[in-house]
Design brief:
Beta-Lactamase, 5-stranded antiparallel β-sheet, 5 domains, disordered C terminus, 616 residues
Length: 616
């Protein structure tokens, strides 16, 4: 109670208390009743009473003042200085103790008061600057206090209170009333979605949570969801655009696509599915994948086997690798050959779904069948060609040998007896023609027999092959300057055919050479080996070839010079080209008329074996 008195009231009470105490002592002393204890009691009571209103310093001054009042009574009247000293000590002890207690209590109150002021200031600052809308509401939903966010979003800047109908959407009034009942019954509600209405009638979607403060007041936090709703709307529009884009893209595919989700319901079937199976694809969307499959499985020739595969794959969540199935023709449905795949979706979002994929391979199968038929016909043609070669070899060469032999006999035995000059000339021409015919047949048989199995290719030391060819052509090489590089590489191919290739090119270079000293150079291009093929060349200083004929010379029986000038059938370069092509190589010529020609050709290196076999 004393703590509620002002300073003047405390002074008046102190003077009255001490005045009454001194008056009481004086009256007792006048009446002759002078006990020392009465002085202690009469002055100690006001000391204690007044000291409860003072701090430490005031209490000490009060104790000294009280001792001064007791001085005349204890020293001058009772002549007891020792009692006076005891009173002084008692007064200081009581006053100082009470003052110390009062001072500490006041300091604690001041600290609490300061802290309370800071807390209130801090709480109010947080309340006003909060991003969420904060309302203190009563049981009816009336806003008793609201923060700056509420004033900014809902407006009503001059109104301190708001009624429920002023800021809640009419369709959400019943919902908020129910939530208010639960709030004051349970003490808390949260995650409530509803709509506020601003002063200018804008709808603000909010997420609400509220806590009960006491039996009559609750605090409501509302988070503005407009930005979130807008982002969700934009995301949905973006997803819809991409979904429509994907659906339209899938619809344009030549393949049939059926997509099911993790609930095994069909979520999409493209237009091609309807074309393949002659059904309305909309009848498949939204139903269970097994039922959808039942609606078109009977169009397949092997429907039971396919049904068993699909049922097992869906049950075990396994994939179906390419499976060929045939669609029977019917009204509104063409006969087709489809390649079917079923792939489970493994992504986290759509895990458990499947993609059914049908690819039309009808044309591919038709091409395969046509290719098989052509291959079969080609094999038959090759067999007939071989038979024809044998016929040519035996049935045609035998009469030629007879003609050639008898014409030779006539020239040897009857030249001077029966034949005149004209007859001798005719028989001579017949003998030469039959010889050329025999050579043509031999070259034709040789050309047709050049078919090599690349699996039988071997390592061929070109250096050694050229040495053997040089020995075989020893008679032809007399008077010829033949130069062979000493570091010829090792290749992979047919040793016999490579020897024949070099032999034909060397013979050709010697035959078509008009120089006094025919010169031949055989070598290879070192830089070509890195490309998997070795490039060889045979260079001569012969008559040369015009540019317009440089491709024709590799055709069968092509001769650019008169038959009388040069021997041969014209099949040599055609045989060379065939040998090179069987090795997957190329052959060409670079030439200048009057200066000579250089024939180039490529043969696989030893390291290129796998490449040759792959290309084969």
């Amino acid at each position: 109670m004393t703590s509620r008195l002002n300073k003047t009231e405390k002074i008046v009470i102190s003077i009255v208390t001490y005045g009454m105490a001194v008056l009481t002592v004086i009256l007792l002393f006048i009446s002759g009743f002078r006990p020392a204890g009465l002085v202690f009691l009469a002055l100690g009571l006001p000391l204690v009473l007044v000291a409860t209103t003072l701090k430490l310093t005031g209490c000490i001054i009060l104790a000294l003042g009280t001792s001064a009042v007791a001085l005349p009574f204890l020293v001058f009247e009772l002549h007891a200085p020792d009692l006076f000293l005891a009173f002084v000590a008692m007064s200081l002890a009581i006053g100082g103790g009470i003052g110390l207690i009062n001072q500490r209590h006041e300091e604690r109150k001041e600290r609490w008061r300061r802290a309370k002021t800071l807390d209130d200031r801090f709480d109010d600052q947080i309340f006003e600057s909060a991003l969420d809308i904060i309302h203190f509401v009563d049981k009816e939903g009336t806003v008793l206090k609201r923060n700056e966010s509420s004033r900014s979003v809902l407006s009503y800047p001059t109104k301190r209170t708001l009624q429920l109908s002023e800021y809640i959407h009419p369709d959400d009034i019943d919902q908020i009333k129910g939530e208010l009942l639960r709030l004051f019954e349970r003490g808390e509600v949260r995650d409530i979605k509803l709509r506020f209405i601003s002063q200018d009638k804008k709808i603000i979607p909010v997420e609400l949570r509220a806590t009960r403060v006491n039996e009559r007041v609750g605090v409501m936090h509302a988070r503005d969801l407009r930005r979130q709703v807008e982002l969700e709307r934009q995301l949905m529009e973006t997803e819809a655009r991409y979904r429509y884009l994907i659906e339209e893209a899938v619809d344009t595919l030549d393949s049939g696509i059926i997509i099911s989700d993790k609930k095994q319901q069909v979520v999409w079937a493209n237009k091609t599915i309807g074309e393949f199976f002659g059904i309305d694809r909309d009848r498949l969307i939204g139903i269970e994948i097994h039922r959808a499959f039942d609606r078109y499985v009977n169009v397949f020739e092997d429907s039971q086997e396919l049904r068993a595969r699909v049922e097992e794959a869906i049950t075990t969540r396994a994939r179906i690798d390419p499976y060929t199935c045939h669609v029977r023709p019917s009204m509104g449905r063409e006969e087709r050959v489809l390649e079917y795949r079923s792939i489970p979706i493994e992504t986290e979002r759509y895990k458990g779904g499947r993609i059914e994929h049908y690819i039309d391979i009808t044309k591919i199968k038709q091409l395969e069948e046509g290719l098989l038929e052509k291959t079969h016909n080609l094999e038959k043609s090759n067999e007939k060609l071989e038979q024809f070669s044998h016929v040519v070899s035996h049935d045609l060469k035998e009469p030629l040998r007879t003609v050639e032999a008898f014409s030779g006999y006539l020239l040897e035995d009857y030249r001077d007896k029966v034949l005149d000059e004209e007859g001798i000339d005719m028989v001579t021409r017949m003998h030469r023609a039959s010889g050329r015919m025999r050579e043509l047949i031999d070259d034709l048989l040789n050309l047709s027999s050049i078919r090599m199995d690349r699996a039988s290719f071997e390592r061929v030391n070109v250096q050694k092959v050229l040495e053997e060819v040089k020995d075989d052509l020893e008679m032809r090489l007399r008077g010829v300057n033949l130069q062979i590089d000493e570091d010829m590489p090792t290749v992979r191919g047919s040793r016999i055919r490579i020897a024949e290739l070099f032999s034909n090119l060397i013979t050709n270079a010697i035959k078509y050479n008009d120089k006094a000293l025919p010169t031949l150079h055989i070598g290879w291009l070192r830089e070509s080996k890195n490309k998997g093929m070795c490039t060889f060349y045979v260079k001569d200083n012969g008559i040369g070839i015009e540019g317009r004929y440089q491709e024709r010379i590799f055709a069968i029986f092509e001769k650019l010079n008169p038959r009388e000038d040069y021997e041969g059938t014209g099949a040599g370069l055609a045989i060379c080209k065939r040998i090179v092509e069987e090795h997957k190589g190329e052959i060409w010529v670079e030439s200048e008329v009057g200066k000579g020609s250089t024939f180039y050709f490529t043969i696989p290196t030893v390291d290129a074996r796998r490449e040759v076999e792959t290309n084969a």
